[in-house]
Amino acid sequence: MTDTRPRAIDPRSPRFGAGLTAVLLLVVLFLWLTGATVAATVLLLVIAALFAWGAFAGVQRHPYGVLYRRLVRPRLGPPAETEDPAPPTFAQGVGLVVTGAGLVLGLLGVPAAVPIGAALAFVAAFLNAVFGYCLGCQLYVLLVRARVIRRRGAAA
Fold it and tell me: Three-state secondary structure along the chain?
């Protein structure tokens, strides 16, 4: 029988992606604050689509993961350890919910929903990129411990 579980990932890859995401979310906030609300909304839509990609296809297939593996990883030493891809993949889903809520509420006419959604997602991306603290991953662990969701991935 073939093992279909995802392989362990280099933990620096999600941090790299979080750094790119944080920069893009700052651009959304800048655009909104300078009055370019349509551009801010479109960029947040692109970011939400990237979160969807990571949530549904997995972090291994996310464009930032591919970029990391092809351009960044070859220039670094091997990781000290690897990690289960399930928590970062779940975190992509959390990012999709946060940015998606900002988009939907913004399109429904709720003032400042787009920048608030972007700001909340920025905080999470910043914490992951700079400190290696993944809020979505922590939420995944709590939900698994509470038996709200089942553990999946390489460590299953």
Answer: CCCCCCCCECCHHHHHHHHHHHHHHHHHHHHHHCCCHHHHHHHHHHHHHHHHHHHHHCCCCCHHHHHHHHHHHHHCCCCCCCECCHHHHHHHHHHHHHHHHHHHHHHCCCCCHHHHHHHHHHHHHHHHHHHCCCHHHHHHHHHHHCCCCCCCCCCC
Q: CA-CA distance, 56 to 77, in Å (whole number)?
A: 29
24 confidence band (pLDDT: 50, 70, 90): very high
Q: How far apart are CA 4 and CA 152, in angstroms?
A: 11
Task: Give which of 40, 88, 99 is closest to 64, Cα–Cα.
Answer: 88
Positive or negative, the Cα torsion across 111, 117, 118, 124?
positive
Categorize the per-residue pLDDT at 6 as very low, low, confident or very high, splitting at 50, 70 and 90: low
Task: Say yes or no to pLDDT of 123 above 90.
Answer: yes
The average pLDDT across 119-129 equals 98
Backbone angles phi, psi at 131, to 5 degrees: -110, -5
